Model the fold of this input.
Amino acid sequence: MFTKMKNVDSAFRYVRGFTILIIISSVVISMFVIYKSFKSISKMQDKIYILANGKVLEAFSSDRKDNIPVEARDHVKMFHQFFFILDPDDKVIKGNLSKALYLADDSAKRIYDDLKENGYYSGIISGNISQTIQIDSINVDIKDYPYHFKCYSKQNIVRTTSILIRSLVTEGDLRSVSRSDNNPHGFLIERWNTIENKDLAVENRK
Done:
């Protein structure tokens, strides 16, 4: 009789242990499945599909911090192109400078006002001068906020008989602001300053 009770007790312990093992395994598997499901859903939510010219394009979202250097450099590039690409047309000048001043604070506005007061823009119109800029490099330090930048570029000032090439080095800080149609990157240039602006060469036009 005692032997039977021992056998029953052993069988009960075996069944109990096996049942606990099954429960633990089920819980682990369920948690793994839930984790993978959430991960898969999260991954799918990071994807967006864009319909362009009848084609479906797949795009991925990312945190802004991953794109700060790229967006900051493009913001600085856009500002310099709007500010320095000028043609002998009052509407072109006003249009480009209006776009540029949305991207910077009053430090850029002061430089614009000084140039305007000194007759720089009227001289471009009366002299049929075109001005372009070529960005060589833009260095942005994202270790400290606001982000400091230096922009290295060359200006081409095209006159009727010659082309003047000048070096242009500027610096400033970038502060984060709200994105808008006028400021798609969500940065504002502060304390903008020209470090160097000197003649490099003069080419005669044929």
Q: What stands out?
A: The mean pLDDT is 85.
